[in-house]
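Might I ask for a little of your time on a matter of protein folding? The record follows directly beneath this note:
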Amino acid sequence: MPDPTLQEIADKVDDVARMLTRQAATLGRLAEPKAVVDTPDGPLLVELHALLVDTLTCAGTARTRRERQAFEAIGAGLDRLLAGRGATVVAPAAGEPFSGTTMEAVEVVATADPEQDRTVAELLIPGLLVGGRSLRPARVAVRRHRPT
């Protein structure tokens, strides 16, 4: 049985390694030309994504089925509009592996199943991918297995 203190240190080393990987990827993206964001569609895509997130939030808190369906229809239209302009909405499903290049872990959920370690538990806010660049990472809750 591993020492709990050593396990905590190993977990922190893992966390630092992931953070450094994310920072290196971010620096690499910053070094690339900003062609995607500097195009006339760049700011429009970011605003459409923000509107999509607001619409999905409204759909999730709607009081009636009719209101929810209306917000979902608007969200589907915004999703099509984004896709038509070359953007991809990043909406990982529960159980998908966590990817630091397109996702941001904002919550950690404990799991007893080691197979589910570092997988998405829940999508909190969808992300935005344009031309292979993540303009807005998807915000997710991630499962974390910690041996006892």
Remarks:
- The mean pLDDT is 86.
- Helices lie at 4-31, 35-38, 41-61, 65-84.
- The CA atoms of residues 11 and 127 lie 27 Å apart.
